[in-house]
Specification:
single chain
Length: 104
């Protein structure tokens, strides 16, 4: 499979430029909210990191600052799946519910 990965030691092909598979659904958020405060900057920077091939990025913020919404917007903008880590099952269940609401 041809790829644009410039890191010769990485076994990962460049999946960032690969088109979605036929029949795949686009990530489209359903929400009445718009990004506010620091969210537009965070969305733009994280999306640029994805476009630039950064494999690992971290979004830090205090409780209630909209990290889940911000990540959902990044997923929608980049049209790439993401791994969201949670420190416990309670928070994982909360995140699942919120993402399920954003992407029904």
């Amino acid at each position: 499979m041809p790829h644009n990965n410039t890191n010769a030691t990485s076994p990962r092909p460049d999946v960032l430029s690969r088109p979605k598979l036929e029949g795949g659904r686009r990530f489209a958020m359903r929400t009445d909210f718009d990004p506010a405060g620091d969210q537009p900057t965070a969305i733009a920077e994280l999306s640029a990191g994805v476009a630039g091939g950064e494999r690992d990025q971290v979004l830090l913020g205090a409780t209630g600052t909209g990290k889940t919404f911000t990540m959902a917007k990044v997923i929608e903008e980049t049209q790439r799946p993401a791994i969201i880590l949670a420190p416990n099952k309670t928070l994982a269940a909360q995140l699942y519910g919120e993402f399920k609401g954003f992407f029904p």
